[in-house]
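Two proteins were folded this term; both appear here.
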Amino acid sequence: MTDTLLISRDGPVARVFLNRPDVRNAFNDGVIAELAAAFTGFAADATLRAVVLGGHGKAFCAGADLSWMRAMADYTWEQNRADAQALADMLHAIWSCPVPVIGRVHGDCYAGGVGLAAVCDILVAAEGVNFCLSEAKLGLIPATIGPYVVKALGEQASRRYFATAERFDAARAHALGFVHEVVPADALDAKVDELLAALVANGPAAVRACKSLVHDVAARPIDADLRAETARRIADVRASAEGKEGVQAFLNKRDPSWR
């Protein structure tokens, strides 16, 4: 844990909060490295069951830090490439985290901040949150965040908001399917806790397998290979100790051992 990234643990749940409120949690190369290291560590933690990603202060994340952007103005192509690769790798570390990541979004969520939101599995936003893919206003493009935003926001909406750089609010993000829940700001933590309770009530291995299943089948054709793979996956789970325990608990009307 550092001053700019606060990480806490409550049993099987980790919480990661950006802590640069003076710059609306804008990130720089240091924050990117810290986030990548944190989520790489989470990937190796078999006891972890969920992660909450949020920010302290008035905003979730306003994108790139202005001081960092000024420094990048003098970068060579090679330096820009290395810098962008670090951001791409950090986003992938969050997206590929084996347990669900809940994004707790409040205040502004701009540019790279939208990328951070997009790599979360579940998004809860406070009423009044504004999203903006603002890169085109600066003559730039949302390239490294693009694959994740297109998946989460949808291709058609991305065509518009990538090119126009318009702001859209939480209600619009919810209507587009980008945000799962929109709640009053003072109810944000309660909704996050409600979702955490739902996640930890389920089979730990099953939840991880569910996340992996969505990643693996989302863009694949429903052909013979996929049908065979999904049949194998459910057979593996049914034959596992957790699968047997869950079914027996249900049949015997008792709580499973993981609760």
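Next, the second protein.
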Amino acid sequence: MTPLNEDETREGHADAMLFEQPYSALVIGASGAIGAAFFDAFQKDPWCQHVHGVSRGQGLGFDLSSEPSIIASATHCRSWAPFQVIVDATGALSIDGVGPEKSLSALDPVQLHKLFQINAIGPALVLKHFSSLLAPGLGIYAKLSARVGSISDNKKGGWYGYRASKAALNMVLQTAALELQRKNPELRIVALQPGTVSSNLSKPFTAGMPTLLTPQASVAGLLLTMKSLRSKAGAHFVDYKGQDIAW
């Protein structure tokens, strides 16, 4: 994906206008580091007429392992719909204190199931029930993914469950995009790579790294990337710098 330049914008591409006209946004996982940064950025955008957040601490019992709780949250959010932008910022790298596997010998079926539930199955159900809250016409459904979910980019191995669950998520997004775009060709579905962000999720794995992104810097880059998304069949897979990532 190449960001629109000034000449292209002057030519009247609708792609450049998504955040330059009034819109409403929804952030799922709004209590996490990146989700909170998205929520704050939308609040500060004068074009954003309303931003609503969904998180586990709201009292609705939102839980990625429970479809009834996802349905209840989507039903609750319908009062503020439609949304031109929905961002799902949920996900987990470590679960119950267990981090990524480094070898086949470390694979555990229970842990694998938990990773798929949080990173693939739950988000698939979120997309199932929240996509109906999108406004017709130009809009974005964005989901935090990870570069390690790219099969073609995997050069180091390891991290079996996290890699596989993110790859599964990416396939869900691609498949859903093809379906949803039959009714709304202007809809962009996008898997977002936020970079290595300073957060509770990444903290155990970033010791010694010279540079970490703040959640705010990551989100600023992701928003610029989202603004320049062009219409295409299927989903986008891009990073916070606006660069395409191979599936």
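The chain has one domain: 6-239. Strands lie at 23-28, 48-54, 85-88, 139-144, 187-193, 236-239. These notes refer to the second protein only.
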